[in-house]
């Protein structure tokens, strides 16, 4: 199927301020799949998401990242977004003077061919539909982007952006952080509704509670800047019950951290 995305990461190495954080990550995410990455703090999880998206503070020192056999690392950040890579950030930025509606319509049109911009009425209908699914008040469309939003409102807004932009690869970096159980269920429902062969999802999380609502196909454990173990949903349940010590003991890992993630 031509529309099924395929992200391939091979031996990816990334440094920040001359400190190596990722030390050879290998991972493949295909359309229709949900992958969860778990691991202790400081092991490189958020570094991976930032490197895929092209954050300028993160220097790729080795390896490859491709999307549908195209070299992602050679793309500018805006080109990565136009190719369909989406990052829902742990700490979304506030932008004064730009409304949610204006931001989203501009972002949608930026991914379309010139002359094929979304009509205002089509945009409004789609935004109303997706905001309803996320139980967001209609006033959110007119508020400045994330300005004055609570943590939970920011996370819902990130999922709204994903639902409107319809990416090919969605990276959700600790999207469950700071959410109460009701908000968590709504956010998870939004992700589940988008599940399709045309979307690959990479979830970075510390907690099983999110995976109770979004069942992953694959769970990966990251330690010392590498993926050291992979399995199915049962792996996340065992981590919740037993922690990470059994993996460290199994693999002979003494110090699981590689430095603070930024």
From TrEMBL:
**Which keywords does the record carry?**
ATP-binding, Nucleotide-binding
Q: Does the keyword Nucleotide-binding apply?
A: yes
Domain of life (superkingdom): Bacteria
Q: Where is the signal peptide?
A: none
- InterPro entries from the entry? AAA+_ATPase, ABC_transporter-like_ATP-bd, ABC_transporter-like_CS, FeS-cluster_ATPase_SufC, P-loop_NTPase
Keyword ATP-binding listed? The answer is yes
Which protein are we looking at?
A: Fe-S cluster assembly ATPase SufC
Which species is the source of this protein? Ammoniphilus oxalaticus
Read off the lineage from the record.
Bacteria, Bacillati, Bacillota, Bacilli, Bacillales
